[in-house]
Design a protein that fits this description.
The complex is a heterodimer of chains A (about 140) and B (about 130). With about 140 residues, chain A is mostly helical. Helix content of chain A is about 85%, strand content about 0%. Chain A is elongated and about 70 Å long. Chain A starts with a helix and ends with a helix. Chain B contains four helices and no strands. The chains are: A mainly alpha (about 140), B mainly alpha (about 130). At the A-B interface, helix 3, helix 4, helix 5 and helix 6 of A face helix 1, helix 2, helix 3 and helix 4 of B.
Chain lengths: ~140, ~130
């Protein structure tokens, strides 16, 4: 696009400030799509795990299943994608519906803290089961 | 400026319900439901890793009538948000924007979500011998 055209579409204030797009405007949108695409196969795999393993009353069976390298890897990938996706999604809901600044920014903060805390806790739990199993089998 | 009370659009209070708008709202609601549901997954993984002796109690709670009702809701939310999300991804590619396509894919998402939800519970019954309600 030529510079004249650029100027024509901009507000006078925009022209004076000379700041264009910071090239990160689609970051939120794109990250939501990337995590969505990743979760199409991951979530179906997860559902099959719920229906066959997590449904079991036997904790040893569940722990053994979680400690396998492939299962641990896929579950960590799912947890990371899911909590990133959840953070992005709820952020928009809060921005859309919560009007009052104090409530809005408190909820936006709470959203980030919740997602990071849950992601960390659940991933560490999976890694614990995985590495504990390696340590046990090495003995 | 901001003190002037301007007329605002009547918005959803007066708007006729359509498959497009209802599914758009449902996409948000199921997203929020799944957000809340992640808490159960976190608790589940934490119990298996750190409190295995309490697993039996958690399992009983999950398979209780209240637990199964929540799980049924989450199963539907899961499939609806997944399938409608795929619909969104097609829109992002510029496909399926005609009114007839939007209506058709909307109903397809609803029907498939219900079907897959029921299928999952049939599989769950096959694996555990327990229906949604005993």
């Amino acid at each position: 696009m030529s510079n004249e055209q650029n100027v024509r579409f901009r507000s006078k204030l925009g022209v004076v400030k000379g700041l264009g797009s910071a090239k990160s405007g689609v970051c939120h949108w794109w990250a939501q799509r990337v995590t969505a695409v990743a979760m199409i196969p991951l979530s179906l795999w997860f559902l099959s795990a719920v229906l066959t393993v997590f449904i079991s009353p036997d904790v040893i069976l569940v722990a053994k299943w979680l400690s396998s390298p492939v299962n641990a890897l896929l579950l960590v990938l799912l947890l990371a994608s899911a909590f990133y996706h959840a953070k992005l999604g709820l952020q928009v809901v809060i921005e859309d519906y919560v009007k009052y600044p104090y409530a809005k920014y408190s909820l936006l903060l709470a959203n980030v803290f919740f997602c990071f805390a849950c992601a960390s806790l659940s991933i560490i739990a999976v890694l614990k089961l995985h590495f504990l199993d390696i340590a046990a089998s090495a003995v | 400026m901001s003190s002037i009370i301007r007329p605002i659009s009547p918005h959803i209070g007066i708007y006729r319900k359509q498959i497009t708008s209802v599914l758009s709202i449902l996409h948000r609601l199921t997203g929020i439901a799944l957000y809340a549901g992640t808490l159960l997954l976190v608790i589940f993984l934490a119990v298996v890793a750190y409190m295995p002796t309490d697993y039996e109690m958690l399992h009983d709670l999950i398979v209780s009538a209240a637990g199964r009702t929540l799980l049924f809701g989450w199963t539907f939310s899961f499939f609806f948000h997944l399938l409608n999300g795929i619909r969104h991804l097609f829109w992002d590619m510029g496909k399926g924007f005609t009114i007839s396509a939007v209506n058709k894919t909307g109903w397809l998402v609803v029907v498939l979500s219900l079907l897959f939800t029921l299928a999952s519970w049939v599989i769950a019954y096959h694996n555990t011998g327990v229906w949604l309600y005993e």
